Amino acid sequence: xxxxxxxxxxxxxxxxxxxxxxxxxxxxxxxxxxxxxxxxxxxxxxxxxxxxxxxxxxxxxxxxxxxxxxxxxxxxxxxxxxxxxxxxxxxxxxxxxxxxxxxxxxxxxxxxxxxxxxxxxxxxxxxxxxxxxxxxxxxxxxxxxxxxxxxxxxxxxxxxxxxxxxxxxxxxxxxxxxxxxxxxxxxxxxxxxxxxxxxxxxxxxxxxxxxxxxxxxxxxxxxxxxxxxxxxxxxxxxxxxxxxxxxxxxxxxxxxxxxxxxxxxxxxxxxxxxxxxxxxxxxxxxxxxxxxxxxxxxxxxxxxxxxxxxxxxxxxxxxxxxxxxxxxxxxxxxxxxxxxxxxxxxxxxxxxxxxxxxxxxxxxxxxxxxxxxxxxxxxxxxxxxxxxxxxxxxxxxxxxxxxxxxxxxxxxxxxxxxxxxxxxxxxxxxxxxxxxxxxxxxxxxxxxxxxxxxxxxxxxxxxxxxxxxxxxxxxxxxxxxxxxxxxxxxxxxxxxxxxxxxxxxxxxxxxxxxxxxxxxxxxxxxxxxxxxx
Length: 533
Hints:
Number of strands: 10
CATH topology of the largest domain: Serine Threonine Protein Phosphatase 5, Tetratricopeptide repeat
Radius of gyration: 26 Å
Number of helices: 25
Largest sheet: 10 strands, antiparallel
CATH architecture of the largest domain: Alpha Horseshoe
CATH class of the largest domain: Mainly Alpha
Oligomer: single chain
Shape: globular
Number of domains: 2
């Protein structure tokens, strides 16, 4: 090892990454075949946030030594971090051709696959890694993450326990078991494991935060605030912690403290629409809807057309007025359009076309228990189908695109809708996903904050969903307040019966939910957002 390279290592260990980079370049200049200098240079560049420079080092290293396992593995990790999925796949596969039994590469590849909605493939990689290192708690915990992504919560907890058999104090496995217990509504275990983790290392703001959230769910607001304040003491700049503190105070009927916390959070993250939304809710709770509207107005001055803020104004108008705002934001008949989706010529009839789409959703590799990460309850949710393959939904995608001009003309029938029409993006992308629900399946009231326009197509409906049902089971309802909105009186809602083969189009700011239904038959819908690029 050259003296210069030893100096570069020392610089890296001292976190003097700029000096490390310069020294690595000097080493490479003297010896272009010195692979370790490329690898260290890439690490130093990444530490400085210079991803392109890191990539350049690794690509040069791959030319110098194409059969280096470490180079290909590190290249795979970097490509994954850069979102270059296929290039990451190629690098990891090349590394495994060099050594199919390298546990670190198998683990890194599995992490990459799981983070890119290929959890089934990740499970296989983790299994291969465990054949090589069966006593590695990190790999067992990674396996638990992939199982959790697949909705296999029981198996995931078993994998965490396996990790803890080899290292009883392995904090990632303890935290993961706690988080899984939250998803399984095993509140006692969740709290026990979060406390166990914090006993080993009390300096974990995220774990204090998770503990606070769990106490909040159980309406133990004093304990929630205590845990969240611990998180705030450790990470005083976290607007997320401050926002959650504010929300907890709001639930505890302490509007004054909630406003104070939301105000601090907004100072830390002035562009966060959700914090502005919650600050407005604090003023509503405090009996001052005028100030709540002023909060929204100030945010819209800096962020015109923000979906979350308009949603807040719409919910406020429905409950508190003024009537002109209620008429502007909540005239459902003027902003919700029903569109019949035509059957493509490649199908013999509509029934075959719709069945093909329904089957595609039910068999999709990303379909899994929605848990509490989505608005869906007692149902299953796919990932973004645009990223994992559209299959027979390609025609639906084209129909959505072709419907945008018609939707704009529909909106123009009401002059007040210019605030929606004027925000239509010229450059947009479609996010689309499937939802399958059965007995007691529903979606809680929510909005799509990134969407200009949202929509929902219906591929299959249980017979219980009927026009004659006064309870409107399985219908979609618009206008209901979200769980985090401070609702103090009845607002304005309207339910629509879904129609197989048709879709509803509506603004992203409009809250919507599915009314629970009682049936063992599956309700299949395909939701989508038109999102500005």
